[in-house]
Amino acid sequence: MASLRLGVNTGYWSSGPPGGALELVETADRLGLDSVWTAEAYGSDCLTPLAWWGSRTERVRLGTAIAQMSARTPAATAMAAMTIDHLSGGRFVLGIGASGPQVVEGWYGQPYPRPLERTREYVEIVRSVLRRDEPVEFHGRHYDLPYRGDDGLGIGKALKSTVHPVRTEIPIHLAAEGPKNIALSAEICDGWLPLFFSPKEDAWYREQLRRGFEAAGDPGKADRFEVVATVPVVPGDDVEACADLVRPFLALYAGGMGAKGANFHFDVFARMGWEDVATKVQELYLDGKKQEAAAAIPLAMVEDVALVGPLGKLRDEIPTWTDTCLTTVLLTAGAHQLEDLAHL
Question: Does the predicted TM-score (pTM) go above 0.90?
């Protein structure tokens, strides 16, 4: 694995753009941080802000964490990747993910079949477009290029991008939480984007990645592979008060992102040993008791996936994170905090 780097995640929009995002991005570039990442759920998209804010930078890599696969066909995603890579001078990182059935079926109005198989097809098509070595033709279970279904006109033509890419191998990172999906990221992608990374699970993560590297048949891939995790870092004298700023985020994902029996984030916390807590949080959240759900999360559960508390405490805990498979930590902070956190 590569040495640990730092980046920033601008996060999701709420009712509008996050305040101070441009200043944060510019500060990250000035400080020499590795990368800046944007996100999308079912509001703002991740590509437009990345291009807008990224135009004010010169050095940082520009990544999507994540571009939802159901939002764009593989060809459209490849077009966007080539476009931003050109505009940024070869600094783009394509982070993609299958999202979850509630968003895919509820927001995009699409089915959520066989996500591992669909991801494999998606990545293969994107890479084919970027290579630009021949017209793109692919006939799989989920994607058909040129389309040959009975309801089509039957005159589709295999095409090659009119744009010559700056790089024919733009890095592709996969958002993954389950064991098979993590292994898939190591097999077919250049990086893994965990949502809730816990240092105590490091041996388990490494085992899933090892399986993927073996399937790839590339002995040197582990040395090039990136693990890029957004880690909430909240410094302050009152540990519980700092944790209170993280608890609603954990409650939303463990409790509200998905239905009972179909919440991948719930499964992550259950695997960490927090199944009883996650069950209670989910019941409260789905009953509309969001504040009670957040309050039910103990400090230890927050500390499994975040750094909270006085600077001395954070300094003592940082080696626990750096001695893992992580290659890049993405901070979520204001521009005024970024320099201090980067030094820490």
Answer: yes
Q: Which two tokens stand for residue 67?
A: 């571009």
Q: How far apart are CA 297 and CA 253, in angstroms?
A: 12
Q: What is the pLDDT of residues 80-105, one digit of tens each?
A: 999 999 999 999 999 999 999 989 99
Catalogue the E-assigned strands of the chain. 5-9, 35-38, 61-64, 67-68, 92-97, 138-139, 144-145, 172-175, 191-193, 226-230, 233-235, 307-309, 328-331
In sequence order, the 6+-apart residues with CB closer than 8 A to the CB of 195 are: 175, 177, 229, 230, 253, 265, 268
Over 60: is that where the pLDDT of 2 sits? Answer: no
Of 174, 168, 11, 14, the closest CA to residue 99 belongs to 174
Beta strands in 81-238 (DSSP E): 92-97, 138-139, 144-145, 172-175, 191-193, 226-230, 233-235
At residue 3 the predicted structure's pLDDT band, cuts being 50, 70 and 90, is: low
